[in-house]
Amino acid sequence: MRFLLRLIGFILLLTALSCSEEKKEDVSSNFSPEGRAIMEKENLSDEQISNLKLVEIDYSKAPSEMRAIAYKIFLRQSLTQPDLKALGENINKSFPERKPNGLYRYGRTLLVTAVENQNLDAVNALLEAGADPYVSTDPNNESEQIRSWNFLYLAMKQEGQKLPDSDYFDKTYANQLLQLYLKHGGDPNYRWPDGQSLLEFTVGDNFEGFKILLQAGADPWKRGEQDTPLAVQCVTLMRKPSCIQYLAENGYYDKTPENYMYDMIDAATNELEAGARTDPEEVGQSYSEYGRYADAVKLLLQRSHYPLGEGSTLYRLLYVESGTYRKKLQEKRDGN
After folding, report:
1. Among the listed residues 198, 274, 197, the one whose alpha carbon sits nearest the alpha carbon of residue 228
2. 86/57 Cα distance (integer angstroms)
3. What's the pLDDT tens digit per position in 79-97?
């Protein structure tokens, strides 16, 4: 009886192994000869096999030498400058497959493939070889928005795990890509066709990226065709205390034009009056932002040397009733 059970177990094991091999053969049959060779040589996980298939789709119409580079990026193999420069204009091209196997795929340049495969060495090598970080990844797409997508846009969209006790995500990888972009002469004041600047892209959820760009020479007072400078928007629209404080500490408000001071004073007055009327219970921990915003505005006024009148509402909110927000929040915490 024991022998029979062992025999049955052995047969089941052989059957499972056979099915597994058949499954691998079925999967590999959907790949090109180059893809099958990679699968035979490398011990790929299911996720890696899926990613390899996407690389094949993205470069199915590309020249063979370009496809070979894409495989190297996927495998994290070294890219040589002679091989990359030999690609010529193809280093910036994409070959969108509109509906491969029912899957809609946007275009991918080699830079974007390197980003998606978390391959910083490849990104560095491609930029060094002259790959254009601004070229559209899908230049013939019907959507104007999608036509504006490029390496820089997709790089800044990268995010890791959600940060503890925060609504934001880890942007370490995005900032590593940003630093490579700047290292190779990228413009810290770059704007997309819709007018949004790279600096504006970071200010919402990537404070470290915001600082990296400023340190590289980004100008928060630089305007597009019809927009308000970011230094003003941080006070009037975005209401970002950390950004206001950083700009003030580094002298960006030292010579603020008077017309913009009026706009910022009006916005700060309205914001802090709203805070004085708000019940902390209604907004939870975010209520403390009012206090941080007030501190940042005070620093801005100090650095700009603006003569805020003692009879103004903002003066009262900042200096006479300066503890309003913290006091109300503390009372709620104490249960009073």
Report:
1. 197
2. 23
3. 999 999 999 999 999 988 7
